[in-house]
Specification:
Layout: E1 8-17, E2 20-25, E3 30-35, H1 54-63, E4 71-76, E5 83-88, E6 94-97, E7 107-111, E8 115-121, H2 129-141, E9 145-151, H3 158-170, E10 174-177, H4 186-193, E11 197-201, H5 208-215, H6 221-231, E12 241-244, E13 253-256, H7 270-273, H8 301-307, H9 313-329
Parallel strand pairs: 3-5, 8-9, 8-11, 9-10, 11-13
Antiparallel strand pairs: 1-2, 1-4, 2-3, 4-5, 6-7, 12-13
Helix pairs in contact: 2-9
The structure holds guanosine-5'-triphosphate, magnesium ion and zinc ion.
Length: 333
């Protein structure tokens, strides 16, 4: 290779399995790059002869800190022309779930995230509000803006869907009502995505991938198909896939993630939980006891707000359930 061609580029990680990542360079090219061995947390995943060992690749990917959305410095190997990720730039934000016990078990779903779109279906599958509340708590715990998307409104009618999820508008969230099938609410959602890095999350089968395709028909469909096969039953793969949005529509990325069946295994400090419910925030510091758990303490302003109907009973129930779960998970929290 001509040494004049030696290049150092900046890019954004779109997807990665094991040690190989697909990166969009700031110049707009899409390239495959391997992660420099020293950036992997455990082992290099390489045999002495330089070939990659499959078994250690998946082990390494579990401990990798690199995530979709990460900004990276790429360098080209002079000898064989291949690209290598040599540096990961500091993140401005991230969507992460902490494994029980905290500390080393953090799972970063995506980096440099502007907002989380929590997608549920109005029906098929039947939405579980308690689960929606958990997704919201995770977004809040990461200090990320959350939007709610209720898809498949064609199945129940928009009015019924709005009635059912009005509790979330009242809690302070923006709720989008969409149908990919009937093209309802798609334009508004598109505006919300333009220029941002947005992560779509939610249960399986609610239409996350369909929304991405419906929103940006120009996006490479083939990538979506790969996503399906990559994610199927392979929990150690980095399942998230970032799609660059068209530059003439403001740019940004939308990150499609595999559906989650349950989100129980995460931990959050108990004292942070209050802040994860936006409708509790106006009452911060107003309870009689500073360490009020809002369970049965006298002079509790949250329970007062509940009685007045300012805090919805269903949301308060979720708060209690999550609180209980956190305290039983690890007594030291
Ligand atoms: N009726 C109706 N069906 C929809 C709509 N959007 C998506 N679907 C259907 O719902 C099914 C699941 O859609 P996907 O886009 O694969 O769902 P997903 O959330 O990406 O699922 P995972 O990848 O498993 O997490 C497909 O059969 C879609 O055709 C909609 O607005 N209305
Ligand atoms: Mg999908
Ligand atoms: Zn209280």
């Amino acid at each position: 290779m001509n040494s004049d061609n030696e290049v150092r580029l900046l890019g954004t990680c779109l997807s990665g399995t094991g040690g190989i990542w697909s990166v969009k360079t700031d110049g707009g090219d899409r390239i495959e790059a391997s992660l420099a061995g020293r950036l992997k947390k455990s082992g290099s995943g390489r045999r002495p002869d330089g070939s990659i060992r499959r078994d250690t690749m998946s082990a390494a990917s579990q401990k990798l800190k690199l995530a979709v959305g990460d900004r990276v410095v790429l360098e080209r190997d002079e000898d064989n022309g291949s690209w290598r990720i040599n540096e990961v730039l500091p993140r401005r934000s991230k969507l992460a779930r902490r494994a029980p016990g905290g500390g080393h078990g953090e799972r970063v779903l995506a980096a440099n995230v502007d907002q989380v779109l929590i997608v549920f279906a109005a029906a098929k599958p039947e939405p579980h509000p308690r689960m929606l509340d958990r997704f919201l708590v995770i977004a809040e715990a990461n200090e990320l803006t959350a939007r709610i998307v209720i898809n498949k409104v064609d199945l129940v009618g928009e009015r019924e869907a709005r009635e059912r999820f009005d509790v979330y508008s009242r809690a302070g969230y923006v709720v989008h009502y969409t149908s990919v099938k009937k093209e309802i609410g798609i334009a508004e959602l598109k505006d919300a995505l333009a220029g941002n890095v947005s992560v779509l999350t939610g249960p399986s089968g609610v239409g996350k991938s369909s929304l991405v395709n419906g929103l940006f028909p120009g996006l490479n469909l083939r990538v979506g198909e790969i996503s399906e096969s990559v994610n199927k039953g392979r929990h150690t793969t980095v399942g998230a896939l970032a799609h660059p949005l068209p530059d003439d529509q403001g740019g940004g990325f939308v990150v499609d993630t595999p559906g989650l069946r349950e989100i129980g295994m995460w931990a959050l400090a108990l004292r942070e939980l209050d802040d994860c419910f936006p409708e509790f925030r106006p009452h911060r510091g107003e309870c009689r006891f500073q360490d009020c758990a809002h369970v049965s303490e006298p002079g509790c302003k949250i329970r007062e707000a509940l009685q007045k109907g300012e805090v919805a009973a269903a949301r308060y129930d979720s708060y209690l359930k999550i609180r209980e779960e956190i305290s039983s998970e690890d007594p030291s929290w």
